[in-house]
Recover the amino acids of this structure.
């Protein structure tokens, strides 16, 4: 760590400290993360704390926001320290403005406004999903990918539009993350239940038929959740296995459709569910069949983190975009296709 | 003998012969990444569905290729080859073509058929007779529910926005005009109301701050 800091310090001297950089604060759901990223896309620091609900429970927004408020001051300090910088060195403060849980979002937004006003830094609201995508593009070097965004709040396939991300297909009801979490909760795991379900599914042998619903490029998972909740007398491992196989096959199919129809050559998978090994295996097959390259994102950055906010902050900063502190709201249900993304054409 | 001309997401399209006639072989091949039970179930259901809905679609006024042979065990449908460009290749230069998509879809819906995948790639303008043909009924089904009809329209909207982003608004307006020619204004208004409801039901569909 010390050595890394020294390197960075020397590098900064070397370049006359001309690179702009900023602070990103992520607080949409269970994760409170802070990161410093510079304009070359170097992640100078990335620290986080994750709120863990009691077994069998989901994220309680009030409890999660209390967790965030308690951890926040230390994490902001840690992020700056790890980057060997101070708040004065920041060129902007970016925060996750949505979508997510209101109380959690407000912790990050309040902090960002306070820092922005007190230290006279531009404030930049960032869409959580755009953060996942842009960080994914940065880390994998993708330029024009078909994006599969699979987080707690999103199950979407996107392609770049005119100064925006355009939804190619999405879930019409539950997200994949919600499906897994809600099933997990029904059998006693706390959210996020992805890793536990993945482990459990490895012991599953018998495939239980579940509804497979693909409508054009859209998906629907609510029927599957209802259906699996009626089968709870069966071994949980078989259910976890069947749920993964069915739900992931649906996602794989629409991903394949997107690649076939757009002719794009890169498939970028981002969001917490991207960490699932079985899903990656399926998507590798899909990419192979369509002659596309799958771009795996490092596991550490697949889930929620501050860097996904700081990096789009850099991009907005470059484009000269920031908000006034009094307009720096949160929006719990901010649609990704309504977000202006000026660097995409 | 058959030549692979397209690898779609769920089937390979091969060009060959059926006796003296040019024919398309649509083969739903095993997907190695899927668990076998699911894979077999889907391929069988979709093959049967496609073959059974296509004649009804033709009766409803949408041109579809003639089916020569259905192999349920081989998941193969052999059908008439329609030579020509797809709407996907032409729409960006000629957004008004979307009206034809609207007309066709409206005819299907009036007959209680939901296409399930109304993509511009599934509309072919035949070189031989200059008629539009609709293909790929693998996701289709019979329904007259407003909900199902509106989801079909939602798919069109989403598809135009993603695949034809530069002409999206214009194309979608032409689509609606074409659709209302058959469905009438009243029918269209009802559908659009439902469409709005569906879009709001989706993730982050309601806008708290706009």
């Amino acid at each position: 760590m010390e050595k890394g800091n020294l390197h960075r310090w020397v590098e900064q001297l070397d370049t006359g400290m001309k690179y702009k950089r900023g602070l990103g604060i992520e607080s949409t759901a269970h994760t409170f993360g802070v990161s410093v990223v510079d304009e070359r896309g170097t992640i100078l620091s990335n620290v986080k704390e994750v709120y863990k609900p009691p077994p069998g429970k989901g994220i309680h927004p009030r409890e999660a926001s209390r967790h965030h408020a308690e951890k926040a001051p230390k994490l902001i300090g840690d992020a700056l320290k790890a980057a060997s910088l101070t708040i004065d060195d920041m060129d902007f403060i970016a925060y996750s403005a949505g979508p997510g849980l209101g109380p959690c979002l407000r912790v990050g937004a309040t902090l960002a406004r306070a820092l922005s006003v007190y230290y006279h830094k531009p404030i930049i609201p960032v869409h959580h999903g755009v953060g996942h995508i842009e960080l994914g593009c940065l880390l994998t070097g993708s330029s024009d990918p078909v994006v599969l965004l699979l987080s707690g709040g999103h199950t979407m396939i996107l392609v770049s539009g005119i100064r925006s991300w355009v939804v190619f297909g999405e879930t019409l009801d539950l997200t994949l993350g919600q499906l897994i979490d809600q099933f997990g909760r029904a059998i006693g795991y706390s959210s996020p239940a992805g890793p536990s379900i993945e482990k459990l599914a490895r012991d599953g042998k018998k495939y239980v038929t579940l509804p497979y619903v693909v409508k054009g490029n859209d998906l629907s998972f609510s029927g599957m959740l209802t259906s699996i909740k009626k089968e709870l007398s069966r071994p949980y491992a078989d259910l976890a296995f069947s749920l993964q196989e069915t739900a992931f096959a649906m996602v794989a199919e629409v991903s394949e459709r997107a690649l076939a129809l757009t002719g794009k050559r890169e498939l970028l998978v981002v969001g917490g569910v991207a960490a699932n090994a079985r899903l990656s295996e399926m998507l590798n097959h899909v990419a192979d069949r369509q002659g596309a390259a799958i771009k795996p994102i490092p596991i550490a950055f697949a889930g929620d983190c501050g860097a996904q906010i700081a990096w789009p902050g850099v991009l907005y900063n470059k484009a000269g975009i920031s908000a006034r502190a009094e307009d720096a709201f949160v929006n719990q249900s901010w649609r990704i296709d309504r977000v202006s993304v000026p660097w995409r054409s | 003998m058959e030549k692979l001309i397209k690898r779609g997401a769920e089937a390979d399209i091969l060009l060959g012969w059926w006796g003296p006639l040019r024919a398309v072989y649509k083969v739903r091949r095993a997907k190695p990444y899927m668990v076998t039970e699911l894979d077999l179930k889907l391929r069988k259901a979709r093959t049967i569905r496609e073959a059974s809905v296509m004649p009804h679609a033709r009766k409803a006024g949408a041109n579809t290729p003639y089916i020569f042979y259905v192999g349920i065990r081989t998941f193969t449908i052999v059908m008439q080859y329609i030579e020509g460009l797809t709407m996907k290749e032409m729409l960006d230069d000629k957004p008004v073509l979307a009206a034809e998509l609207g007309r066709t879809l409206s005819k299907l819906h009036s007959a209680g058929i939901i296409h399930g995948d109304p993509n511009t790639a599934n509309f072919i303008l035949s070189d031989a007779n200059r008629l539009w043909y609709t293909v790929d009924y693998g996701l289709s089904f019979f329904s007259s529910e407003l909900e199902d009809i509106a989801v079909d329209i939602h798919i069109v909207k989403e598809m135009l926005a993603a695949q034809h982003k530069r002409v999206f608004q214009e194309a979608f307006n032409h689509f609606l005009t074409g659709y209302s020619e058959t469905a009438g204004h009243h029918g269209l208004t009802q559908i659009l109301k439902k469409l709005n409801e569906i879009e709001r039901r989706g993730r982050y569909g309601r806008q708290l701050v706009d």
Summary: Strands of chain B lie at 3-7, 12-18, 21-27, 67-71, 76-80, 84-86, 113-114, 123-126, 132-134, 141-142. The first strand of chain B starts at residue 3 and ends at 7. The longest helix of chain B spans residues 168-201. Chain B has a mean pLDDT of 92.
